[in-house]
Amino acid sequence: MTERREGFWDRALTQLSGAWQEIADATLVRVAGGVRPNLPDDDRDRLRSRVAECIQARGGEALARARAAHLGHTYLDLDTEGRRRFLAMLATDFDIDVEEVAREAKAFLGASDSEARRALATSLRDATESPRMSLFTQFNGLPDGLKFLVDMRADALAGRREEPVLVRVADDLRRLLSPGSMSVFWSCGACRGTAPHPCWKN
């Protein structure tokens, strides 16, 4: 049963990789030169810049979608070490700014009236959401993006012993992949009759 489930995911992600590359190709999004499967430092630095561009969403919706598709396609081409390095980059370089959270919390607690606190509560909530959540949301909007995020969370959980910071990524994805989203995912035609992915047991 396990081999069968893993075979399904391998086929699904191979198809997804091709579909996402077509989106990226249509908008001519490229990372200059190939990214090596183990994601050495220079390749990781180039991908870091691409992630930042994707999060900033400059150039309109079509370009942002193409950037996200290219990053997703690139991630699928990485080996286990490369995926772990990519996720660690997201965990450390696109994390919440704890100093900003502290400032917003201090301002919220020091507000003198309820209206001011209500406005500051929004700022505080925004500060406690990591920038990488924007990237995950863009992935989720791509064809079969939910399946991709479930598998990415499984990768984060599998690598957390070697890279403890990957727990941050897994926790963010757990929040994003709400029970409502899961019900849509498991009722879709592609997944009907398939057992839940093992990462949801954690």
Report on the structure:
There is one protein chain. This protein is mainly alpha-helical and 202 residues long. It has a single domain (2-95, 130-201), classed as Butyryl-CoA Dehydrogenase, subunit A, domain 3. It has ten helices and no strands. The chain is globular. The two termini are 19 Å apart. Mean pLDDT is 78; it is low at 1-9 and 183-201.
Overall pLDDT metric: 78
Distance between the termini: 19 Å
CATH topology: Butyryl-CoA Dehydrogenase, subunit A, domain 3
Into which percentage range does the β-strand content fall? under 5%
The total of beta strands comes to 0
CATH class: Mainly Alpha
How many helical stretches? Answer: 10
Largest sheet: number of strands, sense, barrel closure: none
Overall, the morphology is globular
Main features:
single chain, Butyryl-CoA Dehydrogenase, subunit A, domain 3, 10 helices, disordered C terminus
Quick structural gist:
This protein is mostly helical and 202 residues long. It has helices at 2-26, 41-56, 61-77, 80-93, 98-110, 114-127, 132-140, 145-159, 166-176, 179-187.
